[in-house]
Write a structure and sequence with these properties.
- Helix content is about 40%, strand content about 5%.
- It is built from 7 helices and 4 strands; from the N terminus they run H-H-H-E-E-E-E-H-H-H-H.
- The strands form 2 sheets. The chain has a two-stranded antiparallel ribbon with strand order 1-2. A two-stranded antiparallel sheet has the order 3-4.
- A hairpin with a 7-residue loop joins strand 3 and strand 4.
- Helix 2 runs antiparallel to helix 7.
């Protein structure tokens, strides 16, 4: 009896250990999907007309600008969205006067200075950045054509007062913009890399910053 009990107990512990090990390994089993490729700025050199090349460059950069990683933080309704389908933020949230959430419930109630992994089945991580916030109201992009967004980005009254040089620096080096390529487990990163995106924006500016026709 004593030997049988020891055998049963050993088997139970081994099974429990296997369950624990499988649970601990679960987050690693589902890796974050790889980023979508982005063409290099140099690949557009074959377009001889500078204006046509400029439009083509911005259209390629638009794969980033219109990706869910960017659009979720550039809503028209002043409330963030989530996921690849831009569904409403859960729990319900609004920008507030500062863009950092309403009084008493700022964004940093949940979003810290870095991504935080979770054990959730649907939400694999909580996104975070030291400057986590919604884009200003004048920089709302959701529901707009790429041509309309391009016109917004060029206009200092709707791009945060930035010159073209400052706009390039923001796109190419801003840490919060860079989050789009490091969005945490369970989210598809923006296409390419921030460096490639910055090169496309610089080449677009250098060729006259031409915009696609508004839809």
């Amino acid at each position: 009896m004593r030997i049988a009990t020891v055998v049963i107990l050993a088997g139970t512990l081994a099974a429990a250990g296997a369950v624990v090990a499988s649970v601990q390994a679960a987050p690693e089993a589902k890796s974050t999907p790889a980023p979508v490729a982005l063409k290099s700025a140099a690949s557009f050199q074959s377009i001889k007309d500078p204006a046509a090349r400029s439009v083509a460059l911005f259209q390629e950069a638009g794969k980033v600008i219109q990706s869910p990683r960017c659009l979720n933080c550039h809503p028209v309704q002043r409330a963030p969205t989530q996921g690849d389908n831009l569904h409403p933020h859960d729990p319900p949230m609004v920008a507030g006067d500062s863009g950092h959430g309403p009084a008493g419930m700022p964004c940093f109630s949940c979003h810290t200075a870095a991504n935080v992994p979770t054990w959730g089945a649907d939400i694999k991580s909580i996104p975070g950045d030291p400057k986590w916030a919604l884009a200003p109201a004048e920089m709302a992009w959701q529901g707009k054509s790429l041509g309309q967004i391009c016109a917004q980005i060029k206009n200092p009254s709707t791009n945060g007062g930035k010159s073209m040089a400052e706009l390039h620096h923001h796109m190419a080096q801003d840490h919060l913009v860079g989050w789009a390529w490091n969005p945490g487990a369970g989210r598809i990163p923006a296409p390419g890399t921030q460096a490639q995106f910055g090169e496309l924006i610089k080449a677009w500016i250098d060729t006259g910053a031409k915009c696609p026709k508004p839809a």
